[in-house]
Amino acid sequence: MTLRAMNEEVKLFATPIAATVEVAISASNSGRVKCMGSYWPARLYHDDCNLILEPNQKVQVVGIANITLLVTK
User: Fold this and answer.
1) Backbone Cα Rg of the chain
2) pLDDT digits (tens, 9 = 90+) for 5-19
């Protein structure tokens, strides 16, 4: 499981935003997505699941923590 900073500010969006996985994302590894024309670091919103998001997979961005987007399938 990935360790998170205790003072990390998380902001959840009212409406999810569509994105595409560029670098695979799993509970143990952050990856990268293309969202709104830019590339962003990304990680799973729920990092306690066995989900693996593969490159070119469409995902939903539900929030942001510092500069890392939080994504779901």
Assistant:
1) 11
2) 567 889 999 999 999
